Amino acid sequence: MMDLNYSQSIKKELGKSLKEKVVNHRDRFTGIFKARYLEMLPSLIKYKNDHTVSVDFMKAEIALRHGYDIVIGETTSRNIQVIGYATSKQTSGNPEDLFSTNLLRHGEINFIIPKHLQLDYYKEISHEDECKTGNFIVLRNKTINLVSDINILNHYVDELAEIVLSRFSISMQVKITTLFLGEPNDETLLQIISDIYNGNPYIPATKLFDPDEQIYHMNNEHVAQNFQELKREYQNKISELNNMLGINSLAVEKSSGVSDSEAKSNRAFTTSNANIYLDSRNNGLFKLNKRYDLKIEAMYNDEVVSEFQEIENKKEENKSEGGDIVNGNNDTL
């Protein structure tokens, strides 16, 4: 009786530990995947700059992705840089606000620069006087912010986590290919299992042992197909997430035999999502450029791999013609 209770206890603990392992795997994936995208978001947009300003655009991007309206303006040293963040959205400079007639001023800025770098008076640059006056602009992550990037990420990470959970669960099930039928704690049966596991080429058994009745081989041929389907769905969900964030990705796998136009059929949707982020930034930068005669522009930085591939292609083409690309300068792109 004690042996039977012990066996049941082992089965219960084994089931519990496997369940916890699978759940922990899903939760770990959720944390890793979400954190990786949050790390990546500030790097998606780069700025074309003629190096006449000292704006820390990486700091600006990190703050924008966390919901701050970043103030870029002039300092006492006549530099243009990030000086703080706006505390109010009620301004005619905000495209989302149709009715405001006021402009942001000194009192609506939380400064992050030292007092000695702050001008005595700040006024928002505006289209009202064709950007001829004022000394700061406001950058916003999106022109109209109805859906946060975090909510988008949470939605797709939850779906991806369930797919990963299924894949991990199936991979564990694959390991169970053979069932040995017998009494709990049967020492003979346990010895047979141990010998097979350790690669023993032959196993002595009594006449009472019937392999056809006591050994059952499970058919796992369908598992490979399930893995393929889950992999395809996983890639589709990542593609959907990337498209929502304005990152270029194929609408379908090229391996499925579709044409280039079919694989890139979602490019209009992706570009529209990218413009949500770019238009809000360039709206402010346009006023700053006009006021101070600068040439700053926000651009998406989601095709770095393509850029490097194009550089390699140009190198190969140039070598075939007997030349070489000097320093791999991407100005040739």
Can you offer a commentary on this structure?
By secondary structure, this protein is α+β, with helices and mostly antiparallel strands. The protein has two domains: 43-147 and 275-320, Upper collar protein gp10 (connector protein) (Upper collar protein gp10 (connector protein) fold), CATH 2.40.500.10; 150-265, no CATH class. 48% of the residues lie in helices and 10% in strands. It has helices at 2-40, 57-65, 149-174, 187-197, 211-214, 221-244, 260-263, 267-292, 304-320; strands spanning 45-48, 70-74, 80-86, 109-111, 136-139, 178-180, 215-217, 297-300. The strands form three sheets. The protein has a four-stranded antiparallel beta sheet, covered by helices on one side. Strands 1-8 form a two-stranded antiparallel sheet. A hairpin with a 5-residue loop joins strand 2 and strand 3. The longest helix has 39 residues, at 2-40. The protein is rod-shaped, with a radius of gyration of 31 Å. The model is unreliable at 6-14, 304-312 and 323-333 (pLDDT under 50).
